[in-house]
Hints:
The complex is a heterodimer. By secondary structure, chain A is mainly alpha-helical. Chain A has one domain. Chain A is built from four helices and four strands; from the N terminus they run ααβαβββα. In chain A, strand 2 and strand 3 form a beta hairpin. Chain B is built from three helices and four strands. By secondary structure, chain B is of the alpha+beta class. At the A-B interface, helix 2 and helix 4 of A face helix 1, strand 1 and helix 3 of B.
Amino acid sequence: MFIRELATADALPSLEATVRFASQRQQILAHNISNIDTPDFVQKDVAPGEFQEFLSAAVDRRRERWGGHRGEMEWRQTRAIRSDDHGGFRLEPVEARQGLMFHDRNNRDVERLMQDMVENVAQHRVATELLRSRYSLLGTAIAGRI
Amino acid sequence: MYGSLDISVSGMTAQRTRLEAIAANIANADAIVDPAGDPNPFRRRMVHLAPGDPTSNTLAGRAGGVHVADIELDDAPFRRVYDPTNQFAFPEGHPEAGYVLYPNIDPMIEQVNALEAARAYEANIAAAEATKTMLGQALRILG
């Protein structure tokens, strides 16, 4: 139980969720990029804004339930983010109707895809760096010496 | 994360196949006989892509990505070039006497398609590099 409390304290669940979101979204973006020349293909995505709302709602629920910054996260699904059976979540991308429709009925927008990918990698980097520093702090605390 | 790499590699493979078909079209733009030596002009090859990749190693790779669904022969009419001295020209009495049938390949169209396939290949490489970067970052969590 003590280890479980350590693993769900403070920002650790939020950071892990962000890493998981970025990894799953990378798959969606790679799928869109590999299909930029496929006829009748419609680009799908999950908006980072929707994930931010999903995460902040879970943080607020945790604060209300456990009265602070400890405890498990309880995910409540949104339009494109669904709970899975293991207490986590999975992304179900929705059609992104942005950009021009080309003659092959594909609404590719290569520049926007590249931008999304760069931002996704940056989000992943921020979350992993913060996670690393948190785990390093935990390690220091457990070791009992600096 | 390995699913993302599978997806990007499937994209690269599909675009490379497209480029090979385009290269074959350009190389055979003036091929008016078949390998047996009979007058049978080369027909333009068209590559059709479709989502999903059944040959992928991962479940995510099979659901995502892209594959070559079909390589179709273009049924556009052949080019007609007037050359009565050519041994394969239509004989006298034929409605198109003196004309030779050439492949239905326009090098300009093939060049533009080749450019597009090359750019799509680069885009997939960029996606694969981004996935590799994220993999490296995830490993650094361990310290």
